[in-house]
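Table S2 (continued). Query chain:
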Amino acid sequence: MHTTLIQGDITRQDVDVIVNAANSSLLGGGGVDGAIHRRGGPEILAECRALRASHYGRGLATGQAVATTAGNLPARWVVHTVGPVYSAAEDRSELLRDCYRNALRVAGDLGARTIAFPLISSGVYRWPADDAVRQALAVLDTAETSVEQATLVLFDAPTYETARSVRG
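Corresponding output:
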């Protein structure tokens, strides 16, 4: 799989799958999650509510992933994954890598060839951007998947420059 880094708005990516850094409720929130729900429209929320009513009554577990329609987004699907909250006292990096692995697995199961990821857990969950990039690339650069192209979409210039620096 080929992985690229770009600065931009994940809700504007013309790919098969846009990954949502969701909260466990799957019912929308702030940051990437809120932007995806706002731009994607009510169809995404309706499918998330149906998932909560059926398989995910207690919410989606950290590191897991599930797909819905993309509604009004340029993608075909949204894959929702819940990143871990950063902790200096506890190593949660495996959970963060699981977000990328499981999102790729779900995307592959859907037949997706292209996928766009935000930098999971680097916003309100306070994962340091440089390490969040390392964790993402550890999975994306080595994944064995039918997905052909992954894009790591960095929201602002400082985060994009950090990602470029980490990648080398």
